[in-house]
Amino acid sequence: MERLDWQLATVNAIRPENPTAKTFTLGLPRWRPHRAGQHYDLRLVAPDGYQAQRSYSVASPPEKVGEIDLTVERLEDGEVSSYLHGTVVVGDRLEVRGPIGGYFVWQPEMGGPLLLVAGGSGVVPLMAMLRQRRAAGSKVPATLLYSSQSPERVIYRDELEALGRGTDGVSVVQTFTRTTPPGWKGHTRRIDRAMLDEVLRPLGPGLLAYVCGPTLLVEAAANALVLLGVPPDRIRTERFGPTGQ
Fold this sequence. Notes:
- The chain is an alpha/beta fold.
- It contains five helices and eleven strands, in the order βββββαββαβαβαβαβ.
- It has helices at 79-86, 123-135, 157-165, 193-200, 215-227, and strands at 7-18, 21-27, 39-45, 51-57, 67-73, 93-100, 114-119, 142-148, 170-176, 208-214, 235-240.
- α5 (215-227) links the parallel β10 (208-214) and β11.
């Protein structure tokens, strides 16, 4: 296995995704193609030698050569995310290492259908999968079930709306757990077994399920999928600390 060394990436662009999330486009001097679902480690080093390191999923598809997009949600007590949101500007350099991870990944040759289940910023690696599907011209049916606290907290909102309106086999189903858009007729609760049953039925048998988000959501969704008949070896999960989704 090739050794992954730290390298200095240049911040080429910063794009707000919602009030608490930004996408940082990083130019890499030693770029290598990643697989959708992988992540990069990012390390900050203070003048006194103190280090803080976090892992962030890649949002861009591997077809984006020379750069990666990392979408980072600002956490109230997050020293790395707070620095990225409050201090970093275009042209700055950041120390990164990757791509990392071989389990929670999807490539077009793996097929589908795809059921992607996300809570909050858990949508980031799943968006990489949808973006690679599009870039590769894949026709694998895919459904994204995405839980957010409110419409304002949705990450990639415009892109998701466009995907949901498209005709290339992608369905986007959203649920809001706190506030909803005016006239909303969709789901208004946390992801549960009944909701999963509703979205997986049109996909048919043999689906691949990827679940990413806060620990409680991931565990509940994965258990429900097994009860609904999805084989455990067709379910891949990635979790992080609770954010109330």
